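My main concern about presentation is that the manuscript never shows what a single data entry looks like. For the editor and my fellow referees, an illustration may be useful. For illustration, here is how one protein appears when written out as sequence plus structure tokens:

***
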Amino acid sequence: MIVAVASSFVLLLSCFGNTDAAACGQRSYDPTFQSCCNGVINSKGSNEACCGTTPYNSTFQICCNDVLSSKGSNEACCGTTPYNSTFQICCNEVLSFKGSNGSCCGTTPYNSTFQICCNGVLSSKGSNGSCCGTTPYNSTGHICCNEVLSSKGSNGSCCGTTPYNSTFDICCNGVVSFKGSDGACCGTKLYNPTLQICCNDVLRYKGSNEACCGTKLYYPSFHICCNGVISSKGSN
């Protein structure tokens, strides 16, 4: 505690004696002639930037992940390596000749006009603009359901790996059924809510019964349901 107070007092005195002084960690320095790089004071010279704890001149050098290199015509970094993005491309820290490539597929550069990258796998593009897993496809004629590719036809929705037309069919927990006049699911079954009621995935005919108690039906007017047990309401 005493050492910390003493250090702060010395820093205060140093700064008080020099109106241009600034703090660099627990020490004072003159920004006109010195640089502070992550708590380390160095002579400034023509340097105006820091690379880790080392000052440097960004006109002649480049800092890539705290590694200093001569700049030359390089203006970008690939990991710790400087490069010229006009002629090279960096894909996941792997440098390659750029050519006509402007995109990356993993560590491989490619031209997205002629190729497509699907989950790290490069393929010829052709008319394909979408991916189904690692397979490219044309979404006009095909549909991808959970990485399973199928002909599209009139289908525009997926039920698990099965394509279906939601105008005519319905998907109930992975099972496709003809919709008809029914419009609701009870587990994997289809039902008409006007005539039936679904109690915990068990279908019951509704009749005058209007509520579920677990998987059973009861009359709320005359009975009470507590934790799946039906009891007479009485005067309660």
Remarks:
- The two ends are 71 Å apart (CA to CA).
- DSSP finds one helix and 32 strands in the chain.
